[in-house]
Amino acid sequence: MSTPSPTATDEISWVLTPLLELPGVLHAVIATGDGLVEGASDGLSRASAERVAAMTATVHAAARAFTSAFTDTEQPKPVQTVVESELGFAIVVPAGENTSLAVFTTPDAQLGNVAYQMQVQVAALGRAMASPARQQDTTLRS
What we know:
By secondary structure, the protein is α+β, with helices and mostly antiparallel strands.
C-alpha cells in the first residue's frame, strides 16, 4: 500500500509529505482561516479537501467558544483540536497567521507521534513563510 502524496500544484503541500509518511495518517489539508484549501493530500478529492478546509475554521471557532465558556477568557488560542470517531481521529492545529493544518488518521495511529510531527511541520512552514523571497542578482560580474 502506498502513502498518498501531496498534490504537486499546491505550493506549500511539501509540509504534508512527512505527515503522510507516518503510520496511520490517511489525509492532510492546509487551510486558510476563512476555509480555503492551500494544500491537500492526493488521496483526498478536491470536494472533500474543500469541505475539510471549511470545517477547520468552524472547528477552531467552536474550540475557542468552548474554551471561553469554561474559562471566561475573551480570545483563547486553541493549540490543538482532536475529534475522535470510530473511523479515526481528525486533528487540527494552527499553522501560522490565518492558516491551519488538519490530518485524519486511523483509530490505531500513534497520536503523540502525529501531533509532534504536525508541530515540526508547522515550525518548518513558519520558517519558510518568514524567509524573504530570493532576489535575482542583477549585478554583472567581470
